[in-house]
Write the structure tokens for this entry.
Amino acid sequence: MITVLRMGHRQKRDERLSTHVGLAARALGADEIIYSGEEDRGLIESVNAVAQRWGGKFSARYDGNWKGIIKKYKKKKFCIVHLTMYGISLKKKIGKIKKNKKILVIVGSEKVPPEVYQLADFNLAVTNQPHSEVAALAIFLHEYFKGKELDKKFPKAKIRIVPQGRGKKVLEK
Ligand code: SAM
């Protein structure tokens, strides 16, 4: 079970990026995403609409109480992994993290409150260079699932792509 916590969403500035965090989480094997920061019903609806249409069991929801979420998931024995460029190399820690079946992965937007660093079991860096929450999450999930997420099936899809060397073929129910 992989839950992603997207911290500090700002409705105007982060609309596109927060959507992409949700879509990447879903496509690459996570089970749910919780958005914190500003409440944005359009964002939740658009991620859930994609999940409905493209199949699988992924869902998105909003909860403004990020500290409460982290504490709740800790109680439920989730391993809390905070992705940050200030952390320890993913390569050094991924082996230990993989031993956990339940993970709460936290990604930020602008500045992440210092308390998150304290509450996390792992502050994990996907390189110590600044880049993006989507890139960090994608690489984390790829390492965690050892590439198996690339073959993930999405049952009950209303729309499906038939892979083509050239051009597009899409089946819709
Ligand atoms: N200086 C900001 C900070 O406080 O960490 C960076 C913000 S960055 C635009 C947004 C998010 O992307 C971060 O909160 C983190 O989750 C993720 N991120 C960016 N670079 C990363 C890296 N090298 N390793 C892991 N996560 C990263």
Remarks:
- The chain has one domain: 2-172.
- The longest helix spans residues 41-54.
- The longest strand covers residues 79-89.
- The pocket of S-adenosylmethionine is lined by residues 83-85, 107-109, 111-112, 125-127, 129-133, 136 (CB under 6 Å).
